[in-house]
Amino acid sequence: MIRHSWQALDKIAASVRRGSVRAIDLTTEALSLIEASSEYNTVILTLKDRALELAEEVDRKVRRGQDPGPLAGVPYIAKDNFLVYGGEARAGSKILNGFVPPYQATAINRLEAAGAICVAKANMDAFAHGASTENSDFGVVKNPYDKTRVPGGSSGGSAAAVALGLVPFALGTDTGGSIRQPSSFCGVFGLKPTYGLISRSGVIAMGSSLDCIGPIANSVADAALVVEVLAGKDPLDATTVDRSKERYVTKPLSLSGLKIGVVKEYVSDGVAADIKQAFDQTVADLEKAGADVCEVSLPSTKLALACYYIICPAEVSSNLSRYDGIRYGYHDASSKNLDDSYLKTRGRGFGKEAKRRIMIGTFVLSSGYYDAYYKKAMTVRTMLIKEFESAFKKIDFLIGPVAPTVAFKIGEKTKNPLDMYLADVLTVPANLAGIPAASVPIGFNEQGLPIGLQLMSAMHSDRNLLGLAMSIEGLS
Ligand code: GLN
To answer: Fewer CB within 10 Å of terminal CB in the chain, N or C?
Structure first.
């Protein structure tokens, strides 16, 4: 694997602000790294013209003695479901071919104001439905550690791009694990913040009560700096919450006396031996460092996957109804009338997975089945939230594996959708509860494939979670 290594984000930005490195050179470098790594298929569109313009602007500010911001000249890649000026936003789906966003996501605007430069759009499972990027209409992304394996999904392009060192950080979205699982599969750090901490405005919706935006980076400190720029209320997203009064760029937490719970249901028989071994080793390291590790049972986590695959498709079916062939992207011109146009555009434009979710979603919401499925799932969701709440009254953090296995082979889980859904079993509970959760690299299995550790903490304790992640990063 070719691997370019970037300095820490604050160092890159400091060099740009000092004038010792030019933003334009960093942008050009990232663009040529992307080109040289095309076999991995991490990127589906580069935003060269716009990126060079923005870099020029950063360099101009430096020359004029103005402050270009804390991320001055730092190149990054955004998942394709972010609306970014300078190119199409397709969310990995051909139904959005030709859709050029008329406005930009708040997250992109905030990064731009901080001096960061979006150089490309990352490949992803279409509409973020998936755990491998195999549902992308633009081909699968290859895992940087083994090209015959998936990078995880749906933010697989973002995670693989960071692992390859094409850019120092990338943006992903996490509705049921899509930042944490690819981060674990690619050996990088990924954070799904508290629901509402980062604005969803201008991000193509999947499941609106679950969707979170977050950074994927090579270090916790880099990710924290991105959160520092992105976090906080946005009038364009009514679900956003206040940011922490303190900076997210924090110090490693002292492990001594910290109460850490291992979720009993997360280390069950379904977890592969190599994952279990790396996990147990980290638990031993945490204990050696003075942490007070205990077992915590969250019985409803057993129901979480079933609950997620009712609530998520229900929201997906509603969110995807806007792709009518008239307002956005692809339109089938051969249609005879309005109904025919809907049928043809949606029939030809959506892939199998989107159609499956539309069917499941409309079914569980339909009269007669609503009480049996959707309402029941919402009850389970509340139970799960309560279990997390009471656990966090007694302990500081919960830990578990991110996924039951390391990166699997391309094609291994595409025959049976249920096999793919099962890959999400350990990540969806945090989305249903809205709590912050992260994946920190803790090592490799015997084949050299990366393994991540999942950390979870109470709502709005993102800053603490980053502190713990830093300590764990320091253990290895
Ligand atoms: N793999 C999960 C799904 O397919 C999660 C996707 C996501 O977080 N965007 O729903």
So the answer is: C
Atom from ligand 1 closest to the CA of residue 431: 8
- The most distant pair of C-alpha atoms in the chain lies apart, rounded to whole Å, by 71
Is it true that the peptide bond before 317 is cis, omega within 30 degrees of 0? Answer: no
CB distance 345 to 324 below 8 Å:
yes
Domain topology for 9-230 = Amidase signature (AS) enzymes (3.90.1300)
> Is 154 known to be catalytic?
yes
Q: Is 393 left (phi over 0), alpha (psi -120 to 50) or beta?
A: alpha
Q: Tokens representing 33?
A: 């790294």
pLDDT over 80 (residue 439): yes
Main-chain dihedrals φ then ψ at residue 469, nearest 5 degrees? -60, -40
Sequence spans of domains, the chain: 9-230
Which H or E run contains 294? strand 292-296
Q: Do residues 416 and 429 lie in contact, with contact meaning Cβ atoms separated by under 8 Å?
A: no
Pocket around ligand 1 at a 6 A CB cut-off: 128-131, 154, 173-178, 206, 312, 424
Cβ atoms of residues 260 and 399 within 8 Å: yes
Asked if 291 and 255 touch (Cβ cutoff 8 Å), the reply is yes
Quickly count: other Cβ atoms within 10 Å of residue 22's Cβ: 18
The mean pLDDT of 49-67, rounded to a whole number, is 98
Q: Cβ-count burial of 475 within 10 angstroms (0-12 exposed, 13-18 middle, 19+ buried)?
A: middle
**To the nearest whole number, what is the mean pLDDT of the chain?**
97
For the four alpha carbons of 85, 86, 88 and 91, in that order, the dihedral sign comes to negative
In angstroms, the CA 106 to CA 201 distance is 6
pLDDT tens readout for residues 347-370? 999 999 999 999 999 999 999 999
Q: If we measure between CA atoms, which residue out of 91, 2, 79 comes closest to residue 40?
A: 2
Q: What is the reported pLDDT for 476?
A: 66
